[in-house]
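Hi Y.,

Following your request, here is the sequence exactly as I used it, all 138 residues.
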Amino acid sequence: MTAASRPTIMPDARSFRVALGAFATGITIVTTHDIDTGDVGVTANSFNSVSLDPPMILWSLARKAKSLPAFIGNSHFAVHVLAADQDALSRRFATQGADKFSTLQVERGEGNVPLLDGCSARFQCRVAFKYEGGDHII
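Below is the corresponding structure, written out as tokens. Let me know if you'd prefer a different format.
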């Protein structure tokens, strides 16, 4: 059956989210710095490579995220690809309202962005483009 001949069925939001959750993906923490509120970080799995030359990645953040203004306001951010033993750190940055950086020692990158240690990979990034994507900013 081709895509053109399939009937269009719009799943409800919960079913769509559950189906997307079946796709195994890596977990990242994305950080930035806000001059008014300080260090900001979120756990994100909406991360992938776009280009090798020049090196480019993308990630997305929900429009309703409280951290959105910080990410919009700083032209720099860092993506930390978590190691297998960093599950607790992933949960920490996924918790709303938590003091995510307390007790953590961080280095500083461009734009005063906090850089976490012990990750499988770490990318210091500069925003090149922002796109609207439904209920997210890409």
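The chain has a mean pLDDT of 89.

Thanks again,
Q.
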